[in-house]
Amino acid sequence: MLDLTPVLVLGVIFGSIVMLVYLNIRKKERMALIEKGADASIFATKPESSPSLKWGIFLAGLGIGLLIGYLLEAMTGMRTEVAYFSMIFLFGGLGLVIYYLIEKKNQPG
With contact defined as beta carbons under 8 Å apart, do 91 and 68 qualify? Predict the structure, then answer.
């Protein structure tokens, strides 16, 4: 069996380095804007209007993906990993797209 531990460790190390560089650059940009007297409200992020709706639709999509993956495996003889992972990602992604469309429709303006 293929051992993925070195690949995962390298991925975590590389991701951590990229994140630290990004956060350092963002901090420097913000400090420069504040020193110039810019309004601090530009740093405020708009809160999500309904995180429970997002998680509900996403988890429902994952559940449907598991069910469809099981049906694909049982009825077509598709490999287990392919059936489950493809359907979980497909329906989880569809759940997030549905959430985006609902939020876009409900935005004022």
Answer: yes
User: Tokens for 86?
Assistant: 């493809």
Using one digit for the tens of pLDDT, what is the confidence trace for 48-102?
A: 567 899 999 999 999 999 999 999 999 998 888 899 999 999 999 999 999 999 9
The token pair that represents 23 in the structure block: 């956060």
Q: Residue 99 phi/psi, 5° resolution?
A: -60, -45
- Are 60 and 95 in contact by the 8 Å Cβ rule? The answer is yes
3 SS3 class: coil
In the chain, where are the structural domains located? 1-44, 46-103
